[in-house]
Q: What sequence folds into this?
């Protein structure tokens, strides 16, 4: 959204209160990353360590029990790749 | 209403209790201690139905008061000097989150060297934190203004914290005859606090979020408008108080200033001392007066111009009780000068500093201040520097 389309000071709630819980979901931070985690499902043991450690709660479990990063929110910190006991996550450079 | 001989600190605690405070979060510090001590006593004795949160520091005292206020509770804290300095981070956040906490501030000098005695360096250090800030010049005023502070801050048009200033020791530890209310007399004067949003699991909201560069400016503008707009509520509450209980409060108070050539501009307890000096010196043919800047924030620009720019006042001597080092020295002086800058018919503005770290300001010191004003006027020149009255060279 462009700057001039943001709310005016008259429209903000007092003290910058946000009265719509969970609307941070609308704020996609995925484009901050320079490296993206890529999961090799052949090595994955479905332990969920990545899901536990991810500071952005960007990992989601799929119907087969695998954990996949949601690139809309993953900031590319690489914690999952370091913590993965099966060494199945590699950090790959984002495309230019 | 009963007139009671009471220590002013205890009366201030009674004012908070009378206002129906629900959460008290404070840490003892001289010369404020008797305020929280008495409130703790009232709660422990079951005379006041409130939560008294004992904390490990003033930073937490302010934080807990803020949190309590955000849940919709009527919250109170009280401190002095180093305590306020330690609170600073949360002081700014409290006004920015629009939480109407009331703080009773027993003004005391900042260290170093360590001084437990009175001046205004603590409040001036917090000048730009966005709180409504009011000065009392005696115990009765401290009692009344603390009581009214809740009604002002919690007004839906305001939603801002209020700081009531009164001089440490000079007021806090003095026993004064104070007109005190019975609970029934003030029934309904302060309506229940109804915040538009509160911390409520049943209706979740986010308070104190990150404000990205695209919104921070607008939040600050809104806050500035709120404190500016609070002025009409302050006037309304003080007027309502006067109509109900007979005691009158104005943003700028005048004493024998209507025909004065030189006026001393004061804040706090020095006001009454200066009035005594004026009475005496009027008898010796001096046309001197006193103007008290009771309301510090929001700054009463219009009132001040009206009182000082009438063509009769030749010189206003501003008494600062704190120093802005390497700057204009006199903080209040520079604000007064700036407020009058655009006026065609403005008096000279001269700065004096006295009473730092609890030093007494004597009769002859006040006389000296007025004389500095007279001399400046005669010579047609505002001194470039603030004069520290009573300084040993």
A:
């Amino acid at each position: 959204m462009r700057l001039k389309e943001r709310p005016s000071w008259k429209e903000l709630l007092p003290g910058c209160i946000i009265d719509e819980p969970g609307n941070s979901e609308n704020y996609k931070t995925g484009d901050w990353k320079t490296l993206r985690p890529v999961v090799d499902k052949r090595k994955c043991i479905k332990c969920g360590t990545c899901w536990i450690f991810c500071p952005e709660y960007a990992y989601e479990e799929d119907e087969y029990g695998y954990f996949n990063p949601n690139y809309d929110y993953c900031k590319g910190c690489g914690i999952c790749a370091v913590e993965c006991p099966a060494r199945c996550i590699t950090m790959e450079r984002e495309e230019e | 209403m009963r007139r009671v001989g009471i220590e002013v600190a205890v009366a201030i605690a009674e004012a908070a209790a009378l206002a129906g405070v629900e959460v008290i979060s404070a840490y003892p510090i001289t010369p404020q201690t008797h305020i929280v001590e008495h409130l703790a006593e009232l709660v422990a004795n079951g005379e006041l139905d409130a939560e008294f949160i004992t904390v490990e520091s003033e930073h937490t005292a302010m934080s807990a008061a803020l949190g309590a206020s955000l849940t919709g509770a009527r919250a109170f804290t009280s401190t002095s000097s180093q305590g306020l300095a330690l609170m600073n981070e949360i002081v700014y956040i409290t006004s920015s989150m629009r939480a109407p906490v009331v703080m009773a501030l027993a003004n005391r000098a900042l260290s170093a060297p360590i001084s437990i005695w009175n001046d205004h360096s603590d409040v001036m250090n917090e000048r730009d934190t966005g709180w409504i800030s009011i000065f009392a010049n005696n115990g009765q005023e401290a009692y009344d203004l603390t009581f009214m502070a809740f009604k002002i801050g919690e007004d839906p048009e305001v939603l801002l914290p209020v700081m009531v200033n009164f001089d440490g020791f000079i007021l806090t530890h003095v026993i004064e005859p104070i007109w005190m209310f019975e609970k029934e007399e003030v029934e309904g004067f302060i309506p229940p606090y109804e915040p538009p949003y509160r911390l409520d699991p049943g209706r979740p909201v986010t308070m104190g979020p990150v404000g990205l560069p695209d919104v921070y400016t607008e939040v600050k503008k809104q806050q500035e408008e709120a404190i500016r707009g609070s002025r009409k509520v302050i006037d309304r509450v003080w007027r309502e108080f006067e109509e109900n209980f007979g005691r009158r409060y104005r943003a700028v108070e005048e004493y024998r200033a209507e025909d004065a050539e030189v006026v001393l501009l004061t804040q706090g307890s020095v006001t009454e001392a200066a009035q005594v000096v004026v009475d005496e010196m009027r008898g010796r043919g001096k046309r001197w007066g006193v103007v008290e800047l009771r309301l510090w924030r929001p700054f009463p620009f219009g009132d001040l111009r009206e009182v000082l720019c009438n063509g009769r006042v030749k010189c206003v001597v501003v008494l600062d009780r704190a120093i802005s080092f390497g700057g204009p020295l006199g903080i209040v002086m520079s604000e007064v000068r700036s407020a009058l800058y655009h006026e065609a018919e403005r008096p000279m503005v001269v700065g004096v500093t006295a009473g730092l770290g609890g030093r007494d300001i004597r009769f002859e010191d006040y006389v000296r201040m007025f004389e500095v004003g007279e001399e400046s006027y005669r010579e047609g020149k505002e001194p470039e520097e603030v004069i520290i009255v009573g300084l040993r060279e």
User: Anything to note?
Assistant: The domain at 32-96 of chain A is CATH 3.30.70.20 (Alpha-Beta Plaits).
